[in-house]
Amino acid sequence: EVKMSKGIKSADPSAEKIIDWSISEKIETCFDRVEAMKPCPIGETGACCKMCYMGPCRLVGKNAEEEVKGICGASLPTVVARNLVRMIAAGTASHGDHGRDMVFTLEAVAKGETKDFQVKDVRKLYRIAGIIGVEFEGRPVNDVALDVANKFLEDFGRQRGETNYVKRAPQKTQERWKKWGIVPRGIDREIAEAMDRTTMGMDSDPDSLLSHGLRTALANGWGGSMISTDVSDTLFGTPGPVKAEASMGIFKEDEVNIVIHGHEPSLAETIVDIACDPEMLSYAQSKGAKGINLGGLCCTSNEVLMRRGIPTAGGFTNQELAILTGLVEAMVVDVQCIMPAIVEVSKKFHTKVITTSEKAKIPGAQHIQFDEHRARDIAREIIRLAIDNFPNRKAKGSRVTQKYSVIAGFSHEYIEYMQGGRWRASFRPLNDAIMAGRIRGIAAVVGCDNPRVPATGIHKYLVTEFIKNDVLVVTTGCGSQACGVAGFLTPEMALENAGQGLREVCEAIGIPPILHMGACVDNTRILTVATAMAAEGGLSDEIGNMPAVGIAPEWMTEKAISIGCYFAASGVPVIFGGRPPSPIAASQEVIRIMSDVWYERFRGCLIFEPDPEKIFSRTLEFIDNARAFLKLRKYEPGRFGEERVLMDMAARREIEKAERAAKPHIGIY
């Protein structure tokens, strides 16, 4: 429900059960800390400037927008814009580093420096090579892979020109970027300039600052993140639908439970392989366990969920709760969205927290450094450590048994394939369904879950309302986990809840009404799908003006801001939800630029709306306005709702007889 009771901290029933147990046991989690730690009322609206040590300056007051200045003279709109651009830069850096690490792994494979990985999807490699201008016909696979890796590495340090993947966007979208000077050059180049522009004494024009913020964000969406998605597919396989399970009930009483948490897939993929090794299984049995059970959290979970069918325990806010089950022998973390608090919680149980990246160490955790050159040895060491910990398990913990089935792994390639097969793959059926009004539009419901609201609750409300109204939902990141632990990622969901038009499309193709498209870096799959729909024809000839909206209902990370901005720059209206106010609330000028000015220039925008019902209504407004702009058939609720009857031959003859009586010329030929 939208109006939730004050006592509910998570809309995930299994999580809520564990939270109740933690309260009775007086074990602190993020849900307790969020009540104790009130947000800074100045910083949360973007009105605090910390860019030099003459301050920090608090730009507050009745007429702060016009009258209040920092010590250097910076206005409130300048300060708010600077703060947002720094968030974009940080988010782009996180996803950029992720992409860079994946390219380094591809390079090591191509050079023969590691035997633990190989190119699994040669077709994807050749597709990438064709896009970025690498010759692949008649060449050894690893030679092609090395050239692709080198071309991608150029994208990080390029000082002039354009990132390779800019050319993937529709021509009209590219023209908008060039007109307004936001075509990204190099990923690191844009991040560095964002930090430079936002220092004291540099750029003080809010529009200029925010324009560079968009360029930095595009370096993420059409750079670091898109590179990461494509390289991961090349090395580990392009996802297709797989069946798995979700919720805290995935852990097993009689097996060694290992949780893989974070964002990068390389170590996680190797752990999946080694966990199936007969030697490891035998070792687990020697310690009293029946086997080895893997589960995931956050986007590392999404990576191995969509490729290997590894079950998920949920998203960001569930990480402490997984340990509270008392069933986790080891939580293995790599990078991004890892709460340092998991170490403190683990001290009350037997769980070992293992960090694996030099970029994400936690005091009190055990560190085992990942190295792609010896991945299998490291995975074996980690699994042995977890097995050795199995006998130390205690009775203490909150056990959960409920689980839900999920269908995950809808890549760009599979969505294209499912509409026409291998030889006639196309986005024509999807475009036709939108044009006819069977599908009203598309909502990308993505992003974090946040303990500042009943976690996952806004996700659940929005996706159910959207599909009732014939809006196809695509989801990534913790948003997809929110759908999974709610039991929403199955075809049966369409039969039970979707509007008639959307239901008929889902039944015809054999898909759920909510498509799991991967990790948070895989938001770029949504961009390439939108580009393919534009190329298919019948809708917009650019990403802008499509009947599609991006929504981050419970966002909390800087990565989410970067993602929202690259969607806005690409032509998608974006709505961020969660608690009020917003990080730009202090400045009406910044709000105007990010809504009205961006929409005029790029046909996309970024607005903040905390009310879930208003998010829903504004999304439908954006979709219906786009349909009207494209002169599509007006969406009519229930238009496809007439009951269909499967007729036998006798019924068909009666209809033909009636038609002949009404129009005698029918059938004379």
Polypeptide structure, described:
This protein has about 675 residues and is an alpha/beta fold. The protein contains 26 helices and 15 strands. The protein has a 6-stranded parallel β-sheet with strand order 12-11-10-13-14-15, with helices on both faces. A 5-stranded parallel β-sheet has the order 5-4-6-7-8. A two-stranded antiparallel sheet has the order 1-2. The longest helix is centred in the first third of the chain and has 35 residues. It is globular.
Broad structural category: alpha/beta
C-alpha end-to-end distance: 60 Å
Cα gyration radius (Å): 26 Å
Which strand-content bin applies to the residues? 5-15%
Q: Characterize the main sheet.
A: 6 strands, parallel
Helix content: 40-55%
**Strands, count:** 15
Number of helices: 26
Show unreliable segments.
1-6, 642-647, 663-669
Q: What spatial form do the alpha-carbon principal axes imply?
A: globular
Overall pLDDT metric: 94
**Strand order of the biggest β-sheet:** 12-11-10-13-14-15
List the helices and strands and how they pair.
Layout: H1 13-24, H2 30-36, E1 48-49, E2 57-58, H3 64-67, H4 76-110, H5 122-132, H6 141-157, H7 171-179, H8 187-197, H9 206-236, E3 242-246, E4 256-262, H10 266-275, H11 278-286, E5 292-297, H12 298-308, H13 319-324, E6 330-333, H14 341-346, E7 352-355, E8 366-367, H15 375-389, E9 404-408, H16 412-417, H17 428-436, E10 441-445, H18 457-468, E11 471-475, H19 477-485, H20 491-497, H21 500-509, E12 514-516, H22 523-536, E13 548-552, H23 558-570, E14 573-576, H24 588-602, E15 605-608, H25 612-629, H26 649-662
Parallel strand pairs: 4-5, 4-6, 6-7, 7-8, 10-11, 10-13, 11-12, 13-14, 14-15
Antiparallel strand pairs: 1-2, 3-9
Helix pairs in contact: 4-6, 4-8, 4-9, 4-23, 5-6, 5-9, 8-9, 9-22, 9-23, 10-15, 18-25, 20-21
